[in-house]
Amino acid sequence: MSKERARRRAEREAERERLAAxxxxxxxxxxxxxxxxxxxxxxxxxxxxxxxxxxxxARRRRTENGxxxxxxFIVQVLAWLLLDxxxxxxxxxxxxxxxxxxxxxxxxxxxS
Length: 112
Description:
Blueprint: H1 2-43, H2 56-82, H3 86-108
Helix pairs in contact: 2-3
Protein backbone atom coordinates (compact mmCIF):
# COMPACT_ATOMS: atom_id res chain seq x y z
CA MET A 1 0.00 0.00 0.00
CA SER A 2 2.87 2.40 0.70
CA LYS A 3 4.26 1.73 -2.78
CA GLU A 4 0.88 2.68 -4.23
CA ARG A 5 0.79 5.91 -2.19
CA ALA A 6 4.35 6.73 -3.22
CA ARG A 7 3.46 6.16 -6.88
CA ARG A 8 0.35 8.39 -6.60
CA ARG A 9 2.35 11.06 -4.78
CA ALA A 10 5.00 10.93 -7.52
CA GLU A 11 2.26 11.28 -10.15
CA ARG A 12 0.75 14.27 -8.30
CA GLU A 13 4.16 15.91 -7.98
CA ALA A 14 4.92 15.30 -11.66
CA GLU A 15 1.54 16.79 -12.59
CA ARG A 16 2.17 19.76 -10.28
CA GLU A 17 5.61 20.32 -11.86
CA ARG A 18 4.13 20.09 -15.36
CA LEU A 19 1.46 22.67 -14.48
CA ALA A 20 4.08 24.92 -12.85
CA ALA A 21 6.24 24.72 -15.99
CA UNK A 22 3.26 25.55 -18.21
CA UNK A 23 2.34 28.46 -15.92
CA UNK A 24 5.93 29.72 -16.03
CA UNK A 25 5.87 29.63 -19.85
CA UNK A 26 2.56 31.55 -19.93
CA UNK A 27 3.82 34.12 -17.44
CA UNK A 28 7.08 34.59 -19.37
CA UNK A 29 5.13 35.08 -22.59
CA UNK A 30 2.81 37.58 -20.89
CA UNK A 31 5.80 39.43 -19.43
CA UNK A 32 7.40 39.68 -22.88
CA UNK A 33 4.11 40.93 -24.33
CA UNK A 34 3.75 43.53 -21.55
CA UNK A 35 7.33 44.68 -22.09
CA UNK A 36 6.82 45.00 -25.85
CA UNK A 37 3.53 46.86 -25.35
CA UNK A 38 5.24 49.17 -22.87
CA UNK A 39 8.05 49.93 -25.31
CA UNK A 40 5.60 50.64 -28.13
CA UNK A 41 3.29 52.81 -26.05
CA UNK A 42 6.25 54.77 -24.65
CA UNK A 43 7.06 55.89 -28.20
CA UNK A 44 3.49 56.79 -29.18
CA UNK A 45 2.03 60.14 -28.14
CA UNK A 46 -0.58 60.10 -25.41
CA UNK A 47 -4.14 60.68 -26.61
CA UNK A 48 -5.61 63.95 -25.44
CA UNK A 49 -9.13 63.74 -24.17
CA UNK A 50 -11.12 66.88 -24.71
CA UNK A 51 -14.22 67.06 -22.60
CA UNK A 52 -17.28 68.37 -24.38
CA UNK A 53 -19.02 71.25 -22.72
CA UNK A 54 -22.28 70.30 -21.13
CA UNK A 55 -25.27 72.50 -20.64
CA UNK A 56 -28.14 73.97 -22.52
CA UNK A 57 -26.18 76.40 -24.70
CA ALA A 58 -23.60 73.81 -25.76
CA ARG A 59 -26.32 71.29 -26.58
CA ARG A 60 -28.18 73.95 -28.57
CA ARG A 61 -25.04 74.89 -30.51
CA ARG A 62 -24.33 71.22 -31.36
CA THR A 63 -27.91 70.80 -32.56
CA GLU A 64 -27.68 73.91 -34.73
CA ASN A 65 -24.38 72.78 -36.22
CA GLY A 66 -25.80 69.32 -36.90
CA UNK A 67 -28.86 70.79 -38.63
CA UNK A 68 -26.66 73.02 -40.77
CA UNK A 69 -24.38 70.13 -41.72
CA UNK A 70 -27.40 67.99 -42.63
CA UNK A 71 -28.91 70.76 -44.76
CA UNK A 72 -25.57 71.34 -46.51
CA PHE A 73 -25.28 67.60 -47.21
CA ILE A 74 -28.85 67.44 -48.59
CA VAL A 75 -28.16 70.40 -50.89
CA GLN A 76 -25.02 68.67 -52.17
CA VAL A 77 -26.84 65.38 -52.81
CA LEU A 78 -29.65 67.16 -54.63
CA ALA A 79 -27.16 69.12 -56.72
CA TRP A 80 -25.34 65.94 -57.71
CA LEU A 81 -28.60 64.19 -58.57
CA LEU A 82 -30.36 67.02 -60.41
CA LEU A 83 -27.52 68.84 -62.18
CA ASP A 84 -25.69 67.32 -65.11
CA UNK A 85 -22.73 69.63 -65.52
CA UNK A 86 -19.60 69.44 -63.39
CA UNK A 87 -19.28 73.21 -63.34
CA UNK A 88 -22.81 73.57 -61.97
CA UNK A 89 -22.11 71.01 -59.25
CA UNK A 90 -18.86 72.72 -58.36
CA UNK A 91 -20.66 76.08 -58.31
CA UNK A 92 -23.29 74.73 -55.89
CA UNK A 93 -20.52 73.30 -53.69
CA UNK A 94 -18.61 76.59 -53.51
CA UNK A 95 -21.74 78.73 -53.14
CA UNK A 96 -23.24 76.60 -50.37
CA UNK A 97 -19.91 76.47 -48.54
CA UNK A 98 -19.60 80.26 -48.66
CA UNK A 99 -23.25 80.69 -47.67
CA UNK A 100 -22.98 78.73 -44.40
CA UNK A 101 -21.43 81.57 -42.30
CA UNK A 102 -24.03 83.98 -43.65
CA UNK A 103 -26.86 81.65 -42.67
CA UNK A 104 -25.36 81.10 -39.23
CA UNK A 105 -25.18 84.85 -38.68
CA UNK A 106 -28.68 85.55 -39.94
CA UNK A 107 -30.55 82.59 -38.48
CA UNK A 108 -28.73 81.85 -35.24
CA UNK A 109 -27.49 85.28 -34.16
CA UNK A 110 -28.28 85.67 -30.46
CA UNK A 111 -27.23 89.30 -30.08
CA SER A 112 -30.45 90.81 -31.37
